[in-house]
Design a protein that fits this description.
Elements lengths: L3 E2 L1 H8 L3 H13 L4 E2 L9 E2 L1 H8 L1
Antiparallel strand pairs: 1-3, 2-3
């Protein structure tokens, strides 16, 4: 389990193209499943907040 991911990680783990992985993370971002934490337009990192919240309780 990797609560912090980037596009390259998703690309590798799912064996998909970079654009596909980027699109998927964009959809997760819109759905509120992940949050982008770098504030950059490149080399972004995404946190799976719902997953991390499980350990806060």
């Amino acid at each position: 389990s990797k609560p912090i991911v980037d596009v390259k990680t998703i690309k590798t783990e799912l064996d998909v193209a970079f654009n596909t992985a980027n699109s998927l993370l964009g959809k997760f971002l819109k759905a509120g499943l992940v949050k982008e934490i770098t504030g950059h337009s490149r080399n972004r990192l995404f946190v799976l907040w719902k997953y991390l919240d499980l350990f806060k309780k």
